[in-house]
Amino acid sequence: MKFTEQELEGVWIIEPKVFPDERGYFMESFKKEAFEQYIGTVNFVQDNESKSTRGVLRGLHYQTGDYAQAKLVRALQGYVLDVIVDLRKSSPTFGKHLAIELTDENKKQLFIPRGFAHGFLVLSEEAVFSYKVDNVYAPSHEASLLWCDPTVNIDWKIDEKELLLSAKDNSGKLLSETILFD
Q1: CB neighbours (10 Å) of residue 26?
Q2: Which domains does the chain have, with CATH numbers?
Q3: Are 101 and 79 in contact (CB under 8 A)?
Q4: Which residues belong to the active site?
Q5: Are 49 and 128 in contact, with CB atoms under 8 Å apart?
Q6: What are the φ/ψ torsions at residue 20 (nearest 5 degrees)?
């Protein structure tokens, strides 16, 4: 596995070694020892999966307080634009974002530490998205950063008219109004 740290502190792109043959391929998607060597100890407690169609934008979500979550995300099928925003007030990259293409072909994964809002947009006809989390879901601690906050200025790569959003995602807070991390 290749681990590449990003400009946003604590964020890593992980690229597995893929061994293709006439039957398909084999790869290790997670290896505790390699993960701990680069990122440190993270105790994943739950795996989640979602299936969405083109134009679905999920995010930008996060959990607050004792229920904050680190995530390891990837696209099992299809093509998504994965986006994170640094919400750590003391971070030199506070308010900055990273957008990365995660596909079933490139097999890249993104590790997102606690303190980030996270979302993704499906750019293929359909996508299956998987993520490991290090804390349980707590609805009373859920928060959402508005996907179109002009301060963050994310280029979502498609026309806004093509987006399919939930009411919750359309009612996210602006960066200046949202709950932040210390």
Answers
A1: 11
A2: 44-170 (2.60.120.10)
A3: yes
A4: 61, 131
A5: yes
A6: -85, 150
Give the closest residue to 72 by CA, choosing from 141, 121, 135. Answer: 135
Query: For the chain, what is the radius of gyration of the CA atoms?
Result: 16
Per-position DSSP letters for 106-131, written without gaps between them:
T--EEEE-TTEEEEEEE-SSEEEEEE
The per-residue pLDDT for 182 is: 86
What are 77-120's pLDDT values in tens digits? 999 999 999 999 999 999 999 999 999 999 999 999 999 999 99
d(CA 60, CA 146): 7
Q: Are 146 and 173 within 8 A, CB to CB?
A: yes
Contact 1, 16 (CB under 8 A): yes
Q: Which residues contact 102 (CB under 8 A, 6 or more apart)?
A: 73, 74, 75, 79, 80, 82, 108, 109, 110, 120, 129
Residue 167 corresponds to which tokens in the numbers above?
């009411």
Distance, CA of 115 to CA of 130 (rounded, Å): 20
How many helices (H) and strands (E) in the chain?
A: 2, 13
